[in-house]
Amino acid sequence: MSPNPFLRQEGPTRQSILTLLKTKWQMNAGELAKELGITEMAIRRHLYALERDGLVKPAMVRQAMGRPTHMYSLTEEAEYLFPKKYHTLALDLLEELDEDPETALLVTRMFEGRKRKLLERYAGRMEGKSLPDRVRELALIQNDGGYMVQLEQEQDELVLHEYNCPIAQVASRYQQACECELDLFESLLGTKVARTECLAKGGSRCTYRMNRIEAK
Questions:
Q1: Would you tell me how many other CB atoms lie within 10 Å of the CB of residue 179?
Q2: Contacts of range 172-178, beta carbons closer than 8 Å, 24 or more positions apart
Q3: If I label 171, which of 85, 97, 132, 207 is the partner at 20 to 30 A Cα–Cα?
């Protein structure tokens, strides 16, 4: 996902527009102008910027009287700007399984199953690529997942840093998440991977190191 557009906005007006569209579902420029007490021209300028950033989308809606009007609503990307607590739900469900001796083993099986699905999803993107290109492809995959990846090359090593962990709350409680990620990387890259730092264990980032020279 692109950087939070709020960082580029002029004051709180666009945040207010997004909040109104979240609560009202659909509104046109006139309705937004009336609600916020500013001119319709100013609203349209903000809507144009929000549409450019991929946060709102217009749809032509016919009215009972008069001409059709453009109604604006949030895009799927905009939904990520609002607070979410998926990790709380995930932890509650995992703890429910973990606390029952009859289902505790299912926790590890769930993480293993997630690893298999991710491997099936991304394995095709690695085919026919050299190790450095596979590492770059992995960085793209992880960036798309919100991991904030930076790549470095140190003599004979390729180094991948992750500065954000979208599942940090879960990984801090269940180390299976970290172990499955390491196994996934090794399977996708086809080489041994060493994790030398981990956010879930108090590190400032997750760091993975791979020998730059592929084994014969």
A1: 16
A2: 172/200, 173/91, 173/94, 173/95, 174/94, 174/107, 174/111, 175/200, 176/107, 176/108, 176/111, 176/112, 177/111
A3: 132
- Give this prediction's pTM: 0.65
Other C-beta atoms closer than 10 Å to the C-beta of 159 total 17
Tokens of 91: 């932890």
Comparing C-alpha atoms, which of 43, 63, 41 is closest to residue 51? 43
Q: Would you state the pLDDT for residue 3?
A: 41
6 touches 15 (CB < 8 A): yes
Report the pLDDT value the prediction gives residue 214, as an integer from 0 to 100: 64
Instruction: Specify the DSSP element, H or E, that contains 61.
Output: strand 56-61
Tell the residue number behind the tokens 């690529």, with chain if given. 129
DSSP codes, 114-172: HHHHHHHHHGGGGTT--HHHHHHHHHHHHHHTT--EEEEEETTEEEEEE---TTHHHHH
Pick from 84, 81, 85: which is nearest to 16 by CA?
A: 81
Yes or no: say if 161 and 207 are a contact pair by the CB < 8 Å rule: yes
User: Which pLDDT score is estimated for 11?
Assistant: 55
What pLDDT, on the 0 to 100 scale, is given for residue 168? 87
Which residues of the chain fall short of a pLDDT of 70?
Answer: 1-11, 213-216
Tell me the C-alpha distance between 81 and 78, whole Å: 6
